[in-house]
Amino acid sequence: MINKQTLKDQLIHEIEQRKDDLVDLCSQLIRIPSENPPGDSTHITTFIDDYLKQVGTVNHWYESTDKMYNLVSTIGNTDGKHLIFCGHSDVVPAGDRSKWDFDPNSGEVVDGWLLGRGASDMKAGLGGLIFTFALLKELEIDLPGQLTLAVVPDEETGGEFGVPWLLENGLIMGDGSLIAEPSSRYNPTIGQKGSFWFKLKVFGQPGHGSLSPLAGNNAITSMIDAINEIRKLWDLPVTIPDHIQPLIDKSKKYMREVEKDREPFQDVMDHITVNIGTINGGTKSNIIPESCEVEVDCRLPFGITQDEVSDYLHEKLDKLGIEYEISRFGFRSNANHTSADDPVCKAIIDNISYVTDHESYGVMQWASSDARHFRDYNIPVLQYGPAFLPSIHGYNEKVKVEDIVRCCKVYIAAVIDYLYDN
């Protein structure tokens, strides 16, 4: 009879003994370019496949679109529960490399920091999942359930060729999932706001600029009126459901007491955020513009749906008497969450406290991720990964080595608790 606590402690110790190998794996992942766009995951998927084969795993490649490869591997026994480890291999572009203090594909460790694009989002977290998966296979741990590793290529663009493609095609399934997306040290994200991204195109009538505003119909000035209406979404009253309010309250507490630089932004938890991200219109200064287009990113709290936002926008824009078109793109979802009492959440939250000897609780994410797709398929999910949050998607991205090791210890302990607790 296996003593679960003894096994868990032994595996945590094993991670500590092999932490240099863990960090080296994460470094190697950063050194492999995998920017999306363009989204070619051939090189990094090949590396991960070769790494896992060294311990004898059977890995399956699934090309969801040209040069975007999903890698799926499963270990354990089919009799018990099934846990999915999920991580994305793509990263956002490095941007202007002259603004970096080091090579974005450095992968170096300097003064306790692992450096490079993807260090926090999310190659360090992905490395922790891969390392945990490989170690359990190498040590021949007799798991009473299954553990699947799913490495996906298409998260950073909000694309459909990673997690949603695997789920839709029945290539992954499970009773719970952990995504190693960046989070704070003690607070995994167990919920997220919804997303409503849209393009608005406004049409006018061209004419000679010297006759404006008496001639023609200026699409840009009409767009200004439209933008003013769109921005009022922030002020739209939203009633948070009673069963969600405690999660919102905890998330605001987190913003006040943990990630303190976020304290001024607490209201994003129960308001619709509105970002006018791009604008394009007109031909030249002396021609009355015939069209103008904006791209808008709205994030939706609990208490309002995508359909309700769409209805609101059409009502307000119709009243302006303008000619327009709205089309959706990118992220699209309603707010969603997994109960903190779900076994997969408890396994992670309890083991964060166990490994760190510090209070842990789940919070809301004010952005969006692949977690929503798992919830669409009724798979409970949360996110927990090593990160230096201010550096995500910015220049000089980095993560603390100690955070990488800590998260990996939590991962392996959580596997034992989750699969052995039947």
TrEMBL record:
Pathway: Amino-acid biosynthesis; L-lysine biosynthesis via DAP pathway; LL-2,6-diaminopimelate from (S)-tetrahydrodipicolinate (succinylase route): step 3/3. GO terms for molecular function: metal ion binding; succinyl-diaminopimelate desuccinylase activity. InterPro entries: ArgE/DapE, ArgE/DapE_CS, Bact_exopeptidase_dim_dom, Peptidase_M20, Peptidase_M20_dimer, Peptidase_M20A. It comes from the Bacteria. The keyword Mitochondrion does not apply. Its EC number is 3.5.1.18. This is Probable succinyl-diaminopimelate desuccinylase.
